[in-house]
Amino acid sequence: MSTSQILRLTRKLELTAEQEQDFLDAMQAGDRSRSALVITPKAPEGYLPPLPAEKTPRDWGHPSILALPAGEAEARPGSLPDYERGYYYPLDLSSVWETAPLAHLPFRPERCLDMCAAPGGKSILAQTRTAPQEHVSNEVHPKRLGILRHNLLRCGFTGVYTQRLRPDQWAELAPGCFDLILADAPCSGQSLLAKGIPNPGCFNPSVTGGNAKRQRGILLAALQCLAPGGYLLYTTCTYAPEENERNVLYLLKRCPDLRTAAVPELEPFRSALTQEACYRLMPFHGAGAGGFTCLLRREGEHAPLPPLPDELKAWPIHAMNRPTP
Prior knowledge:
Blueprint: H1 3-13, H2 17-29, E1 35-39, E2 54-55, E3 65-67, H3 81-84, E4 88-92, H4 93-98, E5 111-114, H5 121-130, E6 134-138, H6 142-154, E7 161-163, H7 167-173, E8 178-184, H8 205-224, E9 226-236, H9 245-254, E10 258-260, E11 279-281, E12 291-298
Parallel strand pairs: 5-6, 5-8, 6-7, 8-9
Antiparallel strand pairs: 1-3, 1-4, 2-3, 9-12, 10-12, 11-12
Helix pairs in contact: 1-2, 7-8
C-alpha cells in the first residue's frame, strides 16, 4: 500500500481536505475497527454480555445489537465462553450500519435469500432485523459453507436453510421466488486496512475492476430471483466507486423496473458520487472500518411468492445429522 494509491482513491471519493487526511491516517494506522454484538436466540432472556457494551445508534441500530466502545480491541469477544455458548455473534459495527435499510421494508419478508452468506453475519442481521418467514443462506465454497452452518447453529438460528449454488443456478432454479435478497458481494476489501489487516493489491485497478465485473454478474443473477415489489440489499466492505455506486448505476440502466430506496436515517452518509440513494460509511464516521449500502426495489405489487422447489430447501440448519451438501 502506498500513500499515492490512497490519495488517488480519495480524489475519486470527493473528500474534503480534512476527510482526506483522516482517511489516510486510518489506512496507515489500522485502528478504526469497532465491534458489535448481535444477541442471539440462544441467549437467556434479558441477557447482557460480560463486556462494556452499549446500545447501537438509535437511528440505524437495533435493540438486540450492542456496540463495544471504540478502542476496546483487547475485549476479544470471540475468546469468551459466552461466544462458544452462542449467546452473541460478534462483527464489525459497519456491518450493522450496512443492514440499516432493512428496517425500512414495508412488510415482513416471506422469503429471504442471502446470496453470498459466509461466515453468516448478514444472515444473522437479517434474521434479527426482519425475521423472514423462510430464509436461505447460500455459500458456494464448501469450506466457507461449513463455517456458515456452524455459526448459524451455534447461535440458535434453526429453521434456516443453506445451499451452495452458483448465482446463475439460483437464477435458473428460483426465478421470482424471493421478496428479499442480500448481496454482500465479494469485493477488494479495502476496509480491511482500516482494521489493521494487510490486504496487498486492494487498490490495484485490475483488482477493483475484476471484482466489479464479478459483482455485476452476481447482482444480475440475484435480480432474476427477485419478485415484483421485492427488495435487494447490495453491500460491500470496500471504498472503490467501481464496486459500489457504479455497479448500482449499471443495474439501474440494465433493469428499467429497478429503483433505489431512500433511507432517511442514513442521509448523513449519502454518497456525493451519485444522485441515487447510495450510502457510504467511512473510517472517520466512528462506526467501524467502513462500507457501502444500497437498497433497491423492483417495481410491481408485492404478492404471495411462487413455491420454492423442495430441493432448494434440502439442507435445513437443524439437520446436523446429515452430511454437508
